[in-house]
Design a protein that fits this description.
two-stranded parallel sheet; 18 helices; Fumarase C, Chain A, domain 2; 430 residues; mainly alpha
Length: 430
């Protein structure tokens, strides 16, 4: 049974408790930086390093001030004595908020990277398992030529590796901090404080900022999440298509006692894959919001803030959930090679049309136009009359003049489509 849950690790990152904990880390590091510069007593910085906050008190002050940073600061200062006056010295709210939010994004990214690695491992294992499991390839939803199910899964694993790379690139651009004061001039807080704080927090100082870190960073991050979610939707859509009753080449796990319909006891629905598809739509929407957040008035307005309180926690949490669901689907995926073979043969051998065409051109001396007419004519008749393609080809004088029946039959060999599968797998290290 695949667990239905929101991972507690991700939920903890976006909890109010952790948010304010990260804010406090920024404030403590800033006080230490001021002390290093000799601007505040070292004893004060030491006491501030032991400061605390109370959620209940923050909520109480919020009801009065309607400003979460001032409410947080009041709670922190109440945990201190006279040295509390040095907390938040020279800073603006976004110095704390933006820098701390990046710390939360990095924590979330740690989880997502592990999720992606786990899915890649499962996909690669299943790809090896079905490396030579033949199935029909479909283009435009119509039978084309055979591929292998393992090749399909290896392709997915490669796409997830690119998603891993995109997330790593986005990580670099959110691994920054900003403590440059009200409009980014460093007038009230020197660059040395920013450099010290960022070093303590494992961040790079943003080369330049205004009141905020620029939102192209967040847009890139959310777009990386959306592309990854889009990949998961693509994979899940394929499983849904393969699970259709008249296809039934693969099926997501269905546990003992599970039900698919309140009215129809026979139903086995791809509900997990459908869930993944629906959630991908949400994350794409969040990416659009992040793109909209790039354009703010002058040195900053607050229109992005309310949106980010939703899209950053929800986007990372949803992708974490989707990755875990789909990893479970792929680990427990039921694969039906016998149905793949049956479906591959539905078109009476038409999957060999290109091989016949190529042989007539390259080995038997026919022009492409003439050969195409012969092969297409037999193909269309096979579609209409459900007659084996090979028999219809053999009726064509142009074919009989150029090859024996045994040679024609030799072209109808499924192993032909496996000729370079080993090489393809080697190219991706499988």
């Amino acid at each position: 049974m695949i667990e239905r849950y929101t991972r507690p690790e991700m939920a903890k990152i976006w909890s109010e408790e952790n948010k304010f904990t990260q804010w406090l880390r920024v404030e403590v590091a800033a006080s230490e930086a001021w002390a290093e510069l000799g601007e505040i007593p070292r004893e004060a910085a030491e006491k501030i390093s032991h400061a605390s906050f109370k959620l209940e008190r923050i909520n109480e002050v919020m009801a009065e001030t309607h400003h979460d940073v001032t409410a947080f600061l009041r709670s922190v200062q109440e945990s201190l004595g006279e040295e509390g006056r040095f907390v938040h010295l020279g800073l603006t709210s976004s110095d704390v908020w933006d820098t701390a939010t990046m710390l939360q994004l990095l924590e979330a990214t740690d989880i997502l990277e592990k999720d992606i690695d786990k899915l890649i491992e499962v996909l690669e294992n299943r790809a090896r398992e079905h490396k030579k499991t033949l199935m029909v390839g479909r283009t435009h939803g119509v039978h084309a030529e055979p591929i292998t199910f393992g090749l399909k899964l290896a392709l997915w694993a490669q796409e997830m590796k690119r998603n891993r790379e995109r997330l790593a690139q986005a990580r670099v651009n959110v691994a920054v901090g900003k403590l440059s004061g009200a409009v980014g001039t460093f007038a009230t807080v020197p660059p040395a404080v920013e450099a010290s704080v960022c070093a303590k927090l494992g961040l790079e100082p943003a080369p330049l900022s205004n009141q905020i870190l620029q939102r192209d960073r967040h847009a890139q991050y959310m777009t990386a999440l959306a592309i990854c979610a889009g990949s998961l939707e693509k994979f899940a859509t394929e499983i849904r298509g393969l699970q259709r009753t008249e296809v039934l080449e693969a099926e997501e796990p269905f546990s003992e006692g599970q039900t698919g319909s309140s009215a129809m006891p026979h139903k086995r629905n791809p509900e997990l894959c459908e869930r993944v598809c629906g959630q991908a739509r949400l994350i794409r929407g969040y990416a659009l919001v992040a793109l909209e957040d790039q354009a703010l008035w002058h040195e900053r307005d607050i229109s992005h803030s309310s949106a980010e309180r939703i899209i950053l926690p929800d986007g990372t949490t949803l992708l974490d959930y989707m990755l875990n669901i789909f990893t479970g689907v792929m680990a427990g995926l039921m694969v039906y090679p016998e149905n793949m073979r049956r479906n591959m043969e539905l078109t009476q051998g038409l999957v060999f049309s290109q091989r016949v065409l190529t042989t007539l051109i390259s080995e038997k001396g026919m022009s492409r136009n003439d050969a195409y007419k012969v092969v297409q004519g037999a193909s269309m008749q096979a579609w209409r009359e459900r007659i084996p393609f090979i028999d219809l080809l053999w009726e064509r004088p142009e074919v009989q003049e150029r090859m024996a029946r045994a040679e024609l039959e030799g072209l109808f060999d499924y192993s032909f489509f496996l000729s370079h599968i080993d090489e393809a797998f080697e190219r991706v290290g499988l």
